[in-house]
C-alpha cells in the first residue's frame, strides 16, 4: 500500500486532500496544530503538533513516504494578511515550517515534496489594472509582492527548488489562486472572500444590505477545491517541477461574486462599500503553462462551485444562529 504524508491536514485543503488520497487507496498520515474544525479526519494516523519545532518535525517525517504534501502555513483571508498586524508571525511561522520540512525530507531520503505557494507572490505592479492583470508564471520577477505573506511564499518556492538543484530532489511547486469550497473557514476573520460573502448573504434576508471592502471592482478568480486537488496530484506525479499556477481563469469582480451568491440564495442583496483591506486591484490565473505541461486545466464554473459552497455555509449559519425566544 502506498503511503502519503499531508502536512496541514487539519486545514481546508489538507482535509479534502486526505479524503482524496484515501479514495485512491493510500495509507495517510495527517499532521497539524489542530484537528479539522468541520469534518472528522479520514487519515489513518493524525498527529497533533507544531511543525515549527524541528524535533517534532523529525518524529512525523520518520520514514520515506511515497508522496508528501506541504500545505501547512500561517495564513488567512485579506482581513488577516493585508492589515500588516500579523506580518512577523506569518513570515516566521511559515518559513520555519518550510525550512524544517525541506531539510528533514532530504535527510530522510524523501526526494519529492509538493509545496503549495500562492498567487500572492506575484508583483503588485502587474496587478494594478483590474481588467488585465498579468499572472503568468514568468512574470514573478523583478519581485514585488504586495504583502509579507507573498514574500514568504516566494522565499519558500526558492527554498524547495534550491533543494532540487543542490540535493537532487524533485520537489513540485504550485501557485494556488483563491481555493474555496465546503468545510473551509467561513467566520472569525481568516475566511476568504467566497466564504465571507456566502456567510453574509446566508445571514441576510432579501432586500438587506451587506458590507463589501473597497469599491467591489477589484477582480479575482476562484478555484473550487476538487479542481485544486486534481491539479495538485497531477503536478506532484508529473515530471514538471513548476512553479505553475493552479487556479481558475474565470475572472470576476467582487461585486459580481456577491451578485452570483445572492442569485444562488434567491435573495435581493444590496452592497455598502466600506474601507477595508482589498489587496491588489486585479488577479487572475494564467493557465497556458499548466495546459502545456500537464495537458489539463480547470473546467468547473465558478457558479457550480459556489452553489455547493453556499449550501454548506448556509447550513453552518443556521446551526450557529441562536433560536429566537
From TrEMBL:
Leader sequence residues: none
Name used for this protein in its record: NAD-dependent dehydratase
Keywords: NAD
One Pfam entry name: Epimerase
